[in-house]
Amino acid sequence: MAENNFLVDSARLGERALQRKHELENNPASRRSPLAYFPGMEQLDSPVEEAVLQEMEDYDCSRYTAVDVRRALAHQNCSREDFKALLSPAAAPFLEEMAQRAQRETSRHFGNTVYLFTPLYIANYCENYCVYCGFNCYNDIRRLQLDEAQIEHEMQVIAASGMEEILLLTGESQQKSNLEYIGKACKLARKYFRNVGLEIYPVNTEDYRYLHACGADYVTVFQETYNLEQYEKLHLLGHKRVFPYRFAAQERALRGGMRGVGFSALLGLSDFRKDALATALHVWYLQRRYPWAEFSLSCPRLRPIVNNDKITPQGIGERELCQVLCAYRIFLPFAGITVSSRETASFRNGIARICATKISAGVSTGIGDHEEKYDGHQEGKAGDEQFAIADSRSITAMYADMSGEGLQPVLNDYVYV
């Protein structure tokens, strides 16, 4: 079977598939180059990737001192060099000062609002073998794809809670979740929600244009890690293995008419300081090419997955994560910052007071279980989750907690004319 048309039924892994899995894991020569595009993948003539990766490669966090950190905090505008100092170990003793500066920047540009949204996973089939992900094609999990009626029912349940923004997610399978399927989901979402986001496999500019026409407002893509060597070791099979195509996804989405784009590395896969630097620089460079667009960053850390509960963040605890987020806010004062349910309720409550502008609520990373989550009537019918969440608060509880923190929860801040 051709690799660009590869989909494993993980419930019935045959001997040939197991042999291929073993070969991919143990023989690097058996893998495609992570720089080799598949047929049909659009290639952009853009200098952003080279600029970001070179600056990340040159970053030596150990050369920054307390003097550099103090200088960075004293500057009214945070330069790239200042940002590098704020990400360095030398900035750790200044975390309280960074938090105060980040809070001032957040208040100046976003007031005391925090935006609430809900993710809806509509399929968990995947053609990629990413060793850290619960959806990977070799993982033996319950696979499920919602049909149109099931998608609409899930949306009705979520909309009844008062939520006005939804983020639609699929596993990365172009066979099971093709553009037409995702487009229909966008059209359904537009019936119930004021803001529709997508977190799907990267596609070409014209494909993003089609999805935008179907109702999608913004696209989020996780680069996972910007370290090409580590990326190659973690993404062993499938379209996701193509590093530059994934890197340019947000730029293609903007060219396709999307209003906004989101960025992130999955912190813990590689050197988190370099990945955080590259994520922010990715935003910084594109802001200058597309100044009209909305940009946001996420800060997910590794979480346990089905069949592998030993996958945990490496080298980045809550204090380090807080440092990264404060540095993001100081460097990119106009960008949104999303903190996912991968983090605990107490951490999310605290960080929302400092620099987060968007928080998910009523979260499920399983397929088709929002009604189960709300009233317990569909136990056992859902597809397995992508990862284990740490904060399972309902929308009502999240709204009350954010209000209790002195924040103003917002369900929609767009006026359509």
TrEMBL record:
The UniProt entry, under InterPro entries, shows: Aldolase_TIM (IPR013785), BATS_dom (IPR010722), rSAM (IPR007197), rSAM_sf (IPR058240), ThiH (IPR012726), ThiH/NoCL/HydG-like (IPR034428)
- Whether Metal-binding counts among this entry's keywords is yes
What SMART domains does this protein map onto?
Answer: BATS
Q: Which GO molecular-function terms appear in the entry?
A: 4 iron, 4 sulfur cluster binding; catalytic activity; iron ion binding
**The name this protein goes by in its record:** 2-iminoacetate synthase
Q: Which Gene3D superfamilies match?
A: Aldolase class I
Q: What is the lineage of its organism?
A: Bacteria, Bacillati, Bacillota, Negativicutes, Selenomonadales
Any single biological process term in GO: thiamine biosynthetic process
Q: Which cofactor does it need?
A: [4Fe-4S] cluster
Q: Which domain of life is it from?
A: Bacteria
Check the record and name the Pfam families matching this protein.
BATS (PF06968), Radical_SAM (PF04055)
* Domain Biotin and thiamin synthesis-associated span(s) in chain numbering: 298-409
Q: Does the record's keyword annotation contain Metal-binding?
A: yes
Family matches, as CDD domains: Radical_SAM
The UniProt keyword set, sorted, is: 4Fe-4S, Iron, Iron-sulfur, Metal-binding, S-adenosyl-L-methionine
